[in-house]
Design brief:
Among the domains are: about 1-170, Nucleotidyltransferase, domain 5 (2-Layer Sandwich), CATH 3.30.420.10; about 490-670, Butyryl-CoA Dehydrogenase, subunit A, domain 3; about 730-955, Rossmann fold. By secondary structure, it is an alpha/beta fold. The two termini are about 60 Å apart. The chain has a 7-stranded parallel β-sheet with strand order 10-11-9-12-17-8-18, sandwiched between helices. The protein has a 7-stranded parallel β-sheet with strand order 21-22-20-23-24-19-25, with helices on both faces.
């Protein structure tokens, strides 16, 4: 077998575009490179500027190149009897065939393979399939990105790696892949031929895999026994004071890291965290970037926990931080701590794969989206041989992958527990067991509140809790202690029951009972055939209700929708419901009545079958069936609760977007104030809770955080201590905040033409001076879109790329990677870029903040909180809007300086910080940067001077 690996550079992606360069690498069946071909092509149309910027190919380089006919004449022999391979093969094959056809040659009709498709299946955990990034990941030298010869060679080496992995998969995995991808495609042919070879020379590596139920897995059985510690039998901390313990760790750090320097703020944090745990007191501790706060709480927590034999639970808001703890901090502590400790990561149940459901899905080939689901299932077949956790976070799904995952994720309603044949291999129960025996259990804020709602049956029993990223706790509590429904809440559940005559739990049950030949088969079949139409009727009523609810939302308004769709909001008040609400109540009553009746019939059917059919496959099917029925019962009850609009302590609203209309409708019911619940479930009953973040204080005060979290009065009773740690960075020498005082004041979410014009001009001038390396933070997606095209045009001649969130991609990780890989670029971001984005070093020199990040005052939750404060004779703007915006502002500012060597500029285009009485709240909350106001014309010279003045960094580098 011969493979021709092709890459083309073109003048663009359109029908009239032409080839600029051809790169081809020939690979033999042993996966060796045996030949190469490369040539520039002289096009008949001009090369666009952006293509030259992307590829480096200009008119001069192709002026003497051969025309396409001549290049194709040399290329065609390489393609004879070859399988065409490319990174996104349809693009290259399409351009190749277009050129062949125009030149009078036969088009290429052979087999094609796509390296993106192969990578997706065979490397399901890598986070990007962009050629440059994947090459770097695989350690493949790829010097000239977007050059056909270099790209073709990188693709050929990636292809060889992928095929080697495919050929080395266990026979069982190959058989499953061939069974799943059996659609007559070239990929299906290639996997099938690889399987044939493997079956002829099969050798199973029993050491590398566990084999069960026709699956090859990395994770074997887990045991409920508590494993013995690997360290000494006696207490390793006996007679060791906390100070001695810290001294020993510092010594080991110095031995391990030659440039280790003790950080005063971190040492303070060690003592404050230990004192809080040891004295059963809560702690609010603000620790800025560079403090090393993860180790700042883990080191004292583990000492206290192991010595006192007390479990410590650590909760983070983001998956990123959870993974950082798992991959970086905990392994480091395993090396430097003087004792052995057990750490576990425990997430919400839906993050773990249910092997029983997955097995059933694969065996029956129950695929709702046949092509996409087959790829997702194939990814998971490969992943089973690599994962020890079964955590979906390890998988990089396509857009429809999340839908497939939802059908195979672990959930309480369809769990057979010990009766399940997969129980001893169950990822969720393994994680839960590991959390129970761990000294420190890492979880997330969502799980804390899910555990509260589940009567504390999920997390292990604990009295000591560390909450990192604590500025998100109040927001997560609101979400989890409230209720949310959307259009798909019912439609997904009913689709699980019945999609068509062959797909879904009801058709599967019908087939099962007909195979059993029971005396009640006819009755059961008739019941199933009776209830299917009722579920369809319920779906119709549901559609009508959501169409009506969409009309209440009215015309779209500017919202924070980062995907580019305007969102609209309608708040519901019991005393002024929208016109036509009675009709909505009638539809809800119809749904509730019909759904209630059909659910009772379905439950009776399920119980009858459960009593009479005891084989495992039927019992498993009935368990899933009951799970779907419980989901629908919850939907029915939540809808009834929402439509009542009764509770005075909650705020109710409807949200929708213009693009998907009634299918985008979401219903929310959220507690207005969660402080009393936080007090009830946490601060009153736990011995010690440490809350930490880089942004907890406003104007050096913790009052806002204390009030939001329900900690008012705790300090006076000696149950709470607040600590603000100084940043280890020298912000006065590392960060310059510039405020252009002649900038116009802006009204409303979208900028007026004068503001936009001045903003684009200033951003462009700054970007040219700093050669890109700029992050611009917006509070409005609408304004980001307005600026994007204008700024792109302004910077095109300077060769600086503009990358827009929601325009070039909605994925924050992908955008950040592209920004760091293309130094001369400007990244425009909205809300998710205000925090959690880490771009250290020279990749980010300038941070521009367009507007102060106030929440929209007309959002129902903000409105309801403001009304509550007004009833209490307090000023909502000063008590709520300002503190929220200041904390968000501090998060945004924190994107610039990430290490002790970073130096850069923050430009703040919102002159309210110097023109209003409340502006000082923002500036005073910053960690001491140099702040200067100036005319716009003075900014570029000042930037040049600041960045050139290395003497200002001497104190940082010494």
């Amino acid at each position: 077998m011969k493979f021709a690996v092709l890459d083309l550079e073109t003048t663009g992606h359109g029908v009239g575009d032409e080839i600029l360069q051809v790169g081809l690498v020939v690979v033999n069946d042993e996966l060796d490179v045996v030949d190469t071909f490369n040539s520039f092509v002289r096009p008949t149309i001009p090369i666009p500027t952006y293509i030259t910027q992307l590829t480096g190919i200009d008119e001069a380089m192709v002026a003497d190149a051969p025309e396409i006919d001549e290049v194709l004449m040399q290329l065609i022999p390489y393609l004879d009897d070859a399988v065409l391979v490319a990174h996104n093969v349809n693009f290259d094959a399409g351009f190749l065939n277009q050129a062949l056809d125009r030149s009078g040659y036969h088009t290429f009709a052979g087999r094609r393979l796509d390296t993106i498709e192969l990578l997706r299946i065979l490397y399901p955990s890598i986070t990007t399939y962009q050629l440059g990034a994947v090459s770097e990941l695989f350690g493949i030298a790829h010097e000239q990105h977007h050059r056909a010869d270099s790209d073709a060679m990188a693709t050929a080496l990636l292809f060889a790696e992928s095929v080697r992995k495919l050929r080395n998969l266990p026979l069982l995995s190959l058989q499953r892949l061939s069974f799943l991808i059996d659609n007559g495609s070239d990929l299906s042919w290639f996997i099938g031929s690889t399987l044939q070879q493997a079956e002829q020379q099969s050798s199973i590596d029993l050491n590398a895999y566990q084999y069960f139920n026709q699956f090859a897995m990395k994770a074997g059985e887990w045991t409920e026994e508590q494993p013995a510690r690997t360290d000494q039998v006696h207490d390793p901390l006996e007679g060791v004071s906390f100070e001695q313990y810290l001294d020993g760790i510092k010594q080991r750090f110095m031995e391990k890291f030659t440039n280790y320097e003790e950080r005063e703020a971190q040492t303070t944090m060690f003592h404050e965290v230990f004192d809080a745990l040891n004295s059963d007191r809560h702690l609010l501790i603000e620790a800025g970037t560079g403090t090393g706060k993860s180790l700042g709480y883990l080191i004292p927590s583990l000492y206290y926990g192991v010595k006192a034999e007390q479990k410590i639970v650590v909760s983070t808001h983001t998956i990123n931080l959870q993974e950082q703890l798992r991959q970086r901090d905990l392994p480091l502590l395993k090396e430097v701590l003087p004792f052995d400790f057990r750490a576990s990561i425990f997430k919400g149940r839906g993050n773990y794969l249910c092997l029983r459901k997955f097995e059933s899905k694969i065996n029956t080939k129950d695929l709702v989206a046949p092509v996409d689901d087959a790829i997702t299932a194939s990814q998971m077949i490969v992943w089973l041989g690599e994962t020890e956790t079964g955590d979906q976070e390890e998988l990089n799904f396509s857009s429809k992958g999340a839908d497939f995952w939802s059908t195979v994720a672990s959930d309480a309603d369809s769990c057979l527990n010990r009766a399940c044949p997969w129980f001893k291999r169950c990822y969720y129960h393994r994680a839960k067991h590991e959390a129970n025996i761990a000294d420190v259990c890492i979880t997330n804020h969502s799980m804390l509140f899910t555990d509260v709602q589940a009567d504390h049956r999920l997390l292990p029993t604990y009295s000591h809790l560390v909450i990192d990223e604590a500025h998100h706790v109040e927001e997560v509590a609101s979400k989890h202690l409230g209720m949310q429904l959307n259009y798909f809440s019912l439609t997904h559940a009913t689709t699980r029951l019945f999609k068509d005559s062959r797909t879904g739990l009801l058709p599967a049950l019908r087939l099962k009972v007909q195979q059993e030949g029971e005396d009640r088969t006819a009755v059961w079949t008739e019941t199933i055939d009776t209830i299917i139409p009722v579920f369809n009727d319920v779906k119709e009523h549901w559609e009508k209700l959501f169409e009506l609810l969409y009309t209440f939302v009215g015309p779209s308004v500017e919202g924070g929708a980062e995907n580019g769709q305007a969102s609209a909001v309608c708040r519901l008040r019991a005393d002024q419901l929208p016109s036509g609400w009675e009709h909505a109540l009638t539809l809800e009553m119809n749904i509730s009545t019909e759904l209630g009746r059909v659910l009772r019939t379905a439950e009776k059917l399920s119980n009858d079958m459960k009593d009479r059919l005891d084989d495992h496959a039927t019992q498993a099917l009935l368990t899933d069936f009951n799970g779907a029925l419980r989901d629908l019962t919850r939907v029915k009850d939540d809808l009834r609760q929402f439509m009542k609009v009764e509770q005075t302590t909650d705020v109710f609203w409807i949200e929708a977007s213009t693009q998907y209309r009634y299918r985008s409708v979401q219903l929310f019911s959220v507690p207005i104030d969660v402080s009393s619940q936080l007090q009830q479930y946490f601060f009153n009953v736990k011995d010690s809770i440490i809350l930490t973040s880089a942004t907890l204080s406003v104007q050096k005060s913790f009052q806002f955080a204390e009030e939001q979290l329900g900690l008012g009065g705790f300090e006076e009773n000696n149950r709470l201590k607040t600590v603000q740690l100084p940043s280890p960075f020298n912000y006065r020498q590392q960060a310059l905040v510039m405020i252009p005082r002649n900038f116009p004041t802006m009204k409303g979410a979208a900028g007026d033409p004068q503001f936009i014009t001045m903003l684009v001009q200033s951003l462009a001038e700054t970007a040219v001076e700093t050669k890109g390396r700029m992050l611009v933070l917006f509070t409005s997606y609408r304004m980001l879109k307005q600026v994007y095209e204008l700024l792109k045009e302004a910077l095109s001649s300077a060769g600086i790329q503009v990358i827009g969130q929601g325009i070039d991609s909605g994925n924050r990780t992908k955008l950040t990677r592209r920004f760091t890989q293309q130094p001369e670029s400007v990244l425009l971001g909205t809300s998710s870029f205000w925090e959690g984005v880490d771009i250290p070093g020279e990749a980010l020199t300038t941070l521009a903040i367009v507007r102060l990040p106030f929440q929209p005052p007309n959002h129902p939750l903000v409105e309801a909180k403001s009304e509550l404060l007004q009833k209490q004779k307090q000023n909502p703007f000063m008590k709520l809007s300002i503190p929220q915006a200041v904390i968000r502002f501090k998060q945004g500012f924190g994107r610039l300086v990430r290490t002790a060597k970073d130096k850069g500029i923050v430009i703040l285009y919102d002159t309210r910080v110097i023109d209003t009485y409340y502006g000082k709240h923002f500036l005073y909350s910053l960690p001491g940067p140099k702040i200067e106001t100036m005319h716009t014309d003075q900014m570029v010279p000042r930037i040049r001077e600041w960045l050139a003045d290395d003497s200002e960094m001497e104190g940082v580098r010494s």
